[in-house]
Amino acid sequence: MSRAIGIDLGTTYSAVSVLSETGQPQILLNQDGESLTPSVVFFQDFDGKDEPLVGIQAKNLAASNPEAVVQYVKRQMGNPNWKFDSPSDTVYTAEEISAIILKRLKEGAENALGEKVEDVVITVPAYFDDARRTATKHAGEIAGLNVLRVLNEPTAAALAYGISAEKNETVLVYDLGGGTFDVTLMKIKDGEFDVIATDGDRNLGGFDFDNALSMIIAEKMEEQGAEDIYTDEHFTALLREKSENTKRANNCGKNKCLS
């Protein structure tokens, strides 16, 4: 019997974990030897047929091919009006894009474990409504996975940080991710994790920090005479990429200038 995996399907990055022999969660490395996979899909058009790339390769192509790249699709889960038209004129829903990402994560897990993977638990924000949860589960099924459960991210975080379900206590979990900032108050009693309240800003995350930094830089460039910055998709995507790299470097305690 194959082991079940856990997937954090994030707005900007996703990760896969499995329980180790000691019962502790262990992050699996992807095909690139990394613990995090960018939640990005790049669509290559081969004779009218899409050949999607997922992960760091897709992310690296976002600046040069913004029209063929999908990012931040988690924000659109459960939205029936959102569609993406690929270069081959194929129309994808948010569920189908997420399924492509999940399939790549599944393949990476199988490569790391050396066995076939079918069962999965996928985490979602506590505020996700039924439509978003159903869309997430459906995406997993499209990817060929048996979705055992769609679990609240704060509950998964509490378990990962060693908060025992055997204790009766109230905990506060905050999650500042790539797309959202969420705070959840949970009561743990008799092995059950009950969400008492959840709130936050669903349009505030690392992506928005990148945009804010990009806008500051763009304004400085306009002051120096640059024109048509916001109408150039390629330049806008490149600026956001450089802004993210600068943010990450400075978060690591390194002073870095955008170049």
Automatic annotation (TrEMBL):
One annotated GO molecular function: ATP binding
N-terminal signal peptide: none
Keywords tagged on the record: ATP-binding, Chaperone, Nucleotide-binding, Phosphoprotein, Stress response
Entry-linked Gene3D superfamilies: 3.30.420.40
Stored PANTHER family: HEAT SHOCK PROTEIN 70KDA
Family that this chain belongs to: Belongs to the heat shock protein 70 family.
The protein's role, per its UniProt record: Acts as a chaperone.
Protein name per its UniProtKB record: Chaperone protein DnaK
Source organism: Streptococcus infantis
